[in-house]
Amino acid sequence: MPKQGQSVESCIVSEFKVKVGDAVKAGDVLFGYETDKATFEEEAKVDGTVLAIFWKDGDEIPCLENVLVIGTPGESFEEFAPKSGTDGVSEVSSRSSERPAEAGSEGLIGREPQGDSRGAEPPSTGRGWPEVSEAISSSGSAVSPRARKIAAEKGVDVTRIAGSGPYGRVIARDVEAAAQAQGRLTGLAKARLAEGGLVSPGAGTGLAGAVKGADLKVWKPSHTDIVGEGAGFEVVKMSNMRKLIAKSMYNSLQNSAQLTHMLGADARRIQALRKKAKKALEEGKVDANITINDFVCYAVIKALQKFPNLNSHCLGDAMRLFRNVNLGVAVDTERGLMVPAVPHADGLSIVELSKRLKKVADDSKKGSINPDLLSPEAASFTVSNLGGFGVEWFTPIINVPQSAILGVGTIVPRPKDLGGGVYAFVPYMGLSLTYDHRAVDGGEATRFLKQVATEIENLDVEL
């Protein structure tokens, strides 16, 4: 399984395009797979015959784990079978060898492994092969060994976690998210939480807000079970990506002090620049279709250079201040909201910035974006533009650990004093800045938002 980016630990097979016994040539697509937010296809590197497939559609496979074997009919391939104990898949000694036999398949597939002396049939998971005994979460899903190990280290009760892995399985990233939501824990609090039955308040009475054993509370489940189909509704499970987005948004609001300021910016200058850019494109002077949003992002970058505290990550009791502006931009895709980053955006011209923003947006929509660019840590500040939908003002949610996010609204006419007792309607753009009050004071946030408006109103670029 290819490793798509440093932050990706596993991928989910969406569909195998080949089966055991198929002859393939170099360049043929073997299977499609996806990370949390991007999709890819893996091609054959050599000519040959598919001798074994160790997984099935929907399985989550650790990066760099063997997926299938291509060779010459009759060759041995058992040495390539995945080893047990990996995260996100069943922990059995030879997964493929314990599956039911498939038509036309021989060797490892459909055959009991050598040396297996079990006399009874292990309990089945319904996935086509046996599975060993595992911890069970509140949703009734299994918990992977790596997730259990991290839970023990960080004092997380796995029985209260809803998994995002295949079939609702609790995997490492679920435990990491739960650990972050618990806040800093003392040794006693960590041990008591691991025993189960208690919940962390998120912030405690210990040093620097650490949660002590005395701060823990008894967990009382409070949820409504939805069983079957109702007369006027149907129950539809969230996709993996939707669940990840939901967790991210919930975690953001639960673990940061968010506040939103709103301000209007005179859009006459930026509209004039848009007309100038469009004409320059028609005349062949530039090779990019520079949009209103591109100009706004360019203005935001200039403002961030003057307010470095906004170009940062809030780490609870520390700040990560960036020397460069790594700009995140919210992109609406068929699979859900994505926020790819443009690293070192402060070093780009308006034409270069426009091209980079278009590329990351297109790659996100096609599912070919580098997963590392989608990590919340990849960007130092995010811009979310809903102006194209006619939204005037809104309260964007911070992409933690970033310290702030700017929401951009549509342009509407508003009255303005032009001086000398003359009033007129001029185009105004709505700006909504949500910031983490732990990292930024209200006065500084207000001054930054005003600076963004000033940059928009006085933007000067070479076209």
Please give a handful of descriptors for the protein shown:
single chain; 463 residues; alpha+beta; OB fold (Dihydrolipoamide Acetyltransferase, E2P); Chloramphenicol Acetyltransferase; 3 domains; 6-stranded mixed β-sheet; 4-stranded antiparallel β-sheet; 8 helices; 19 strands; 23% helix; flat
Structure description:
- The structure is a single chain.
- With 463 residues, the protein is α+β, with helices and mostly antiparallel strands.
- It folds into three domains: 1-129, RNA polymerase II/Efflux pump adaptor protein, barrel-sandwich hybrid domain (OB fold (Dihydrolipoamide Acetyltransferase, E2P)); 145-246, no CATH class; 257-457, Chloramphenicol acetyltransferase-like domain (Chloramphenicol Acetyltransferase), CATH 3.30.559.
- The chain is 23% helix and 21% strand.
- It has eight helices and 19 strands.
- The protein has helices at 145-154, 172-182, 187-195, 240-254, 268-282, 292-306, 350-366, 442-457; strands spanning 10-16, 23-24, 29-34, 39-43, 48-53, 60-62, 68-71, 198-199, 217-218, 258-266, 312-314, 319-321, 327-329, 331-333, 336-338, 341-342, 381-385, 404-419, 422-436.
- Strands 10-19-18-17-13-16 form a six-stranded mixed beta sheet. Strands 4-3-1-6 form a four-stranded antiparallel beta sheet, with no helix packed on it. A three-stranded antiparallel beta sheet has the order 2-5-7, with no helix packed on it.
- Strand 3 and strand 4 form a beta hairpin.
- Helix 1 (145-154) runs parallel beside helix 2 (172-182).
- The relative contact order is 0.10.
- The model is unreliable at 84-135 and 222-228 (pLDDT under 50).
